[in-house]
Task: structure prediction
Amino acid sequence: MGAVDTTATDRTRSAVGGRTLMLVLATVGFALNFWAWALLSPLASRFKESLELGSFAESLVVAVPVIVGALGRIPVGALTDRFGGRVMFPLVSLITVVPVLFLGLVGTSSLAGLLIGGFFLGLGGTTFAIGVPFVSRWFPPERQGLAIGVYGAGMGGTAISALTTVPLVDAGGLATPFLLCAAALTIYAVVAWLLMRDAPGRTPPTEPMLTRLGQTLRLPATWQASVLYAVTFGGFVAFSVYLPSYLKTAYELTQSDAANRMAGFVLLAVVMRPVGGWLADRFGAVTVLTAALAIVAVGAFADSFTPALMPIGTIAFLAMAAALGTGSGATFALVALLAPPGKVGSVTGVVGAAGGLGGFVPPLVMGGIYGAISDYGPGLLALAVVALAAMIFTLTVVRKAVAANA
Result:
């Protein structure tokens, strides 16, 4: 009897160790691809000066990778349902190496090169749609919110870019951060191919991809989560790509100081994402999302007046960072709860696309508004209104859907 118990215990420990390793590999892959995805943002003001770009062109340079990474999540999520994360993670990581090397070696000398390189750099942003279905299948339902939240912390790859890109360029030249990122992605792709395994019992869907996407788009859960993620993660993406330019223009900070403050914003959001998943497991996604969206509305309203950076501006921005990270984690706890198991990847792709698109629009709006009236206030006020509307949507439509699924 003791031998049987020991064997069962060993199997349990092996399963836990296996899922933990898979979570680590997925999170690292997500972080490295997001590092690549965000490489242009910290250098945007430098490109603006060296290439004599206008505010809108500068915004376009940082926004193009965002929209490609967003829309690309739809087919990548569906392909992950079909082929699994074990294939998709190393494949997408290797493909992303190509635009990283292009930008590092030749692509930053012209606006056309930046836009072409940035377009394909967006592939790195699609990896989010790989990890959510991959990780969720490894964990039981009561732990999926936390697990997906931990995986989502890989969005901290944007902080790697914020903290290292400018110092690496100053120390070793413009190509340095791109070459290092390309090397890291290549090494990761090899390790992931050797060590990654899809969860036992995974059954690939047999329907054609377009059929599955059509079914996914007809699910109410897809659209409900998309609305919320467009605000929470979209807000995070928008700030992570545009905050350096905003701080440099509105508060006359140096490029390095603005990038470091953006990194602080990103790191806080990253830390709070798994917390959001854990809180959603414990108190419910609707409760967590309602609180997070209320904080975003208040913070954006306060910053719309461009208050002194210390203390009001900084407190408001950090409160929004914490709330956006928490809300992002809670949104995918909601996806794991409402989406059919065989369609988690497809739903994740669409929801992730909505989040990326939510991050694409604000930088262009902010750049356009500032170019027209030299004031960022209306853009931040619009964010406050959108967050408030999303909070009301959560308390009504989403709450009803969760109750019906209980």
